[in-house]
Amino acid sequence: MTDERADRATALTRRDLLRYGATGAGALLTAPAWTRLAAAGPQPVLEPKKGGTLVIAWEADPGVLVPGLSTGGATVRALVLLYDSLVHEDLTKPAGQVDSPPITPGLAERWTISPDGMTYTFFLRRGVKFHDGTEVDAEAVKFNFDRAIDERHPFFDATLRSINFSLVGYRVIKETRVVDRYTFQLVLSEPFPSLLRNLATRTTGIVSPTAMRRLGKDRFALAPVGSGPFKFVEQERGVKVVLERNPDYWGGAPLLDRVVIRPIVEAASRVAALVAGEVDVMVVIPPDSVHQLRFNRSIQVAFAGPPHIWFWMLNCRATPTKDKRVRQAMNYAVNREGLVKDILRNTATVAKGPFPPGNPGYAKDNVAGYTYDPARARRLLAEAGFPNGFEMKCFYPASGTGMMVPTPMNEYIQANLRDVGIRVSFEVLEFGAFIAKARLGLDDETSALQTSWSSNDPWWLESMFHSDLHPPKGNVRTWYKNPEVDRLLDQARRELNEARRLQLYRQAEKLITDDAPWIFVCHDRSPIAYRAKVQNFVAPPSWNFDLRQVWLR
Question: At 38, is the pLDDT very low, low, confident or very high (cuts 50, 70, 90)?
Fold first, then answer.
C-alpha cells in the first residue's frame, strides 16, 4: 500500500488547497486542510480487537463463487476470502514493498519439484478442515484437479479448462497422484515453470468434495464450501454477499466477525456510500474523486498498483485492421499522455507494450512503444490504402475490475482516431454480456473490443498472443498469429532457467509490440479508499487483499 497521507503534507501547495476548497472538494472537509495536516501529529498505536462487520463496496457483482468458473477480478477477490489453494500469494506485503505478491505455503506447507521440472510433490498441512467439518487431504485435492482434467470424473466440468490457468495449466497435467493421506503429486507432460504462480490464484481453489457430492454442481454454487478464512453465509445476486469468520482457520482466525460485499456498479454511488459511512472500503475510485477523498480526514487512499494493462484488442483477420500498418497507425494516433493527464488525473501510467510494470517480464526499455504522432498515423493509413480513413465498430463493458472509467477513456481515443480519419462506433455492454461476447472472439464486422487484464507471470503473454489459443480454446480474441512469436512462447513456457526464460518473453514482446494486435494504452495504479476506522488494511500489488488482520476501531 502506498499511503498518501504522508505524501500530501509535502506535496501540496497552498494554491492546491485553495483550489480544492473552491471546487467542491471542500464540501468533504470539516476544517481547512492545512489546519488538519498541522494538527494531525503522531497517531497512537492501538491494540487490535475482535468483532464488527466490514462492509466493502465492490465494482461489480462477484457472480458465481466457485473457483475456476470466472477470472473476473470481482469474483476472484471474493474467492480469496472463501477458499485456499495449494500455494498462496502473500497479500500482506504492500505495493511499493514488493513488485508481485511472493508465493507462500497454502494448503501445502511445503513442496518439492523434480530436477526435470516434471513432478511437483505437495506436502499438505494436517488437521485442516473445510467449512463443513470434513478434512482437507490428498484425496480431496485430487478430486479438485480430476474434475478439470478427467472427462470420466462424475463432477467433470469442461468450463474449468477454458479460462486462465486451465489454458495451459490443466493441459500439461498428465497425472494426479495420492502418494499418502497428506502427500499429493502433479505429474506434467512437459516442464511448466509458471505452475506455482498459476496455482496461487484462487481460480484453483480447493472445494469440499463432500459438499459437492451432497449438493451437486449447481446447488454447490448456491452454498459454496471451501477452507478459507471466511465462511459463506448468504448471497443475494446484485445486492450483497455475506461471509463470517472461520474460527478454526489454520492460518489464524480473522479478527472481523463478518464481511459484507456490496456490489455498487455506479462509481459515484460507491464514493457517496463511502463518504456517508454506509460502506467502510471501496475499490475502483473514479479519478476526480481520488483527489477529493485525499482531503477527507475520515478516509485513507492507497494505491495498489497491480500489474495491469488497459487496451483495445484489434481484429487481425478482417479488413481493415488485419493490415499491420493500420494497427500501427491506430497506436500512433492515440495521445496516451493526454489521456492519463486529462481523463485519469495521473491515476495511471502510459503503456508502451503488453507487459505491465510489476510483471517479471516487464523491462522499462525493452520496447520503445508508440509516441503520439498523428501525421505518421495518416501516412501509414495512406500506405495501407485508407487515405480517407474508414469506419469501424468497437465494443466494451460499462464497468468491471480494471476498467477504470471506460466511457470517457474510450471517447477520448475515439476523438484521437477521428482526427486521423478513423470513425469509431461503440457498443457498450453489461460486464457479463461483454464477457460472453468477447469469448467468441472478434467477428468480421467488428474491428476492436476494449478490455483490461492483470497478471504477474510472464507466461500470461502466451495466453494473450499464442495462435493455439484462439477462441474457443483461449483468450486470443484478436486472431493474432505470428509463427516466430509462437515459437518463442513455446520455448519460454518450458525453459527452466529463469533469466533465459525472461529473455525469450522479452523477444516475443518486441515482435508483438511491432505487430500491434492491440492499442497499448495505460496501466492502472488502482486507488482504494477506506474509512479511518479500518485498521491494518493493506493494499498489495494485486486486485485482491487479505482481511485476516483487519479490524475496526
Answer: very low
User: What is the distance between the alpha carbons of residues 292 and 29, in angstroms, rounded to a whole number?
Assistant: 9
Residue 514 corresponds to which cell in the numbers above? 511491432
- Look up residue 163 and give its amino acid: I
Rounded to whole angstroms, how far apart are CA atoms 230 and 84? Answer: 10
Please give the Cα distance from 553 to 550 (Å, whole number).
10
Contact between 86 and 199 under an 8 Å Cβ cutoff? The reply is yes
What percent of the chain is modeled with pLDDT above 90? 74
Query: Would you state the cell numbers that stand for residue 391, as one nine-digit string?
Result: 469506419
Q: How far apart are CA 234 and CA 268, in angstroms?
A: 26
C-alpha 487/C-alpha 352 separation (Å) is 23
pLDDT of residue 43: 60
If DSSP states are collapsed to H, E and C, what string results for 452-474? EEECCCCCHHHHHHCHHHCCCCC
Name which of 255, 253, 246, 221 is nearest 82 in CA terms: 246
pLDDT digits (tens, 9 = 90+) for 479-512: 999 999 999 999 999 999 999 999 999 999 999 9
C-alpha cell at 463: 495466453
DSSP symbols for 152-208: TSTT--GGGGSSGGGGTTTTTEEEEEEEETTEEEEEESS--TTHHHHHTSGGGPPPP
Q: How far is residue 499's CA from residue 485's CA, in Å, rounded to a whole number?
A: 18
pTM of the model: 0.85
Rounded mean pLDDT, 293-312: 93
Burial of 108 (0-12, 13-18, 19+ CB in 10 A): buried
